[in-house]
Amino acid sequence: MTDDTNKHEAEHAEASAGHGSAEAVDAAAFAGAAAETPSEPDPAEALRAENAELKDRYLRLAAEMDNLRRRTEREIKDAKTYAVAGFARDMLSVSDNLRRALDAIPADARAAGDQGLNTLAEGVEMTERAMLGALERHGVKKLEPVGQKFDPNFHQAMFEIPNAEVPNNTVVQVVQDGYTIGERVLRPAMVGVAKGGPKVASPEAEAPAT
Predict the structure, then answer these.
(1) What is the end-to-end Cα distance of the chain in Å, rounded?
(2) If we measure between CA atoms, which residue out of 94, 152, 154 comes closest to residue 124?
(3) pLDDT, tens digit (0-9, with 9 covering 90-100), for 128-159
(4) Does residue 170 contact residue 124 with C-beta atoms inside 8 Å?
(5) Contact (Cβ atoms closer than 8 angstroms) between residue 117 and residue 105
């Protein structure tokens, strides 16, 4: 009786052990399958990424459109400002001829009080002033270089004048007036510059040593 009981208990323990092993195998297999199954993407994260990309595209497009607008406005402004440059340059030649005609009249002849000559001279002067005034309304301005340091961007040196009383390379005489249109030189001024005067100290030379 005792042997049968012991045998029965051993068979029961073996069956229980086998059942537990099967359950462990099933659990491991389930865990492995769960690990192999890819996780689903987060819809909210995908929407955020798409929104960020669309925002970046919008900002880039807005910046490009703003640059295009500014460039177009600048080109239109330049076209309006400089479209008359060629015409204005030709009109300056006419103004030069008017001035030469006035300068050709002897001073004593005008001082003599010849009515016809004075009337003609006054008419030429009025024409010259009206022409220069019209050019100025279109952005043409006369340069005033006398007393300024010679600048090759605005002046054309024709000769040198020895003068020790003014700084060297200073404009002391204008042979032909120069003009600008907008921010550009329409015609450089033909000038004479001083030679032999004191040199102008550069800003670097005047700066105190540190």
Answers:
(1) 116
(2) 94
(3) 999 999 999 988 999 999 999 999 999 999 99
(4) no
(5) yes
The closest of 143, 142, 120 to 131, measured between CA atoms, is: 142
Residue 33 one-letter amino acid: A
Angle at 152 between CA 149 and CA 155, to 5 degrees: 75
Strands (E), 65-195: 140-142, 155-162, 171-176, 179-181, 184-187, 189-195
Q: Considering the entire predicted model, what is its pTM?
A: 0.60
Half-sphere exposure of 111 (CA within 13 A, CB side): 3
Instruction: List phi, psi (to 5°) of 20.
Output: -65, -40
| Residue where the block lists tokens 């009025």 | 126
Give me the amino acid identity at 106: P
Instruction: Give CA 42 to chain center in angstroms.
Output: 46
- Nearest CA among 141, 150, 128 for reference residue 185: 141
Q: At what angle do helices 115-137 and 85-103 cross, to 10 degrees?
A: 160
Distance CA 136, CA 82 (A): 13
Residues 41-90: tens digit of each pLDDT = 678 888 888 888 888 888 999 899 999 899 988 888 878 778 888 889 99
**What angle is formed at CA 105 by the lines to CA 104 and CA 106, rounded to 5 degrees?**
110
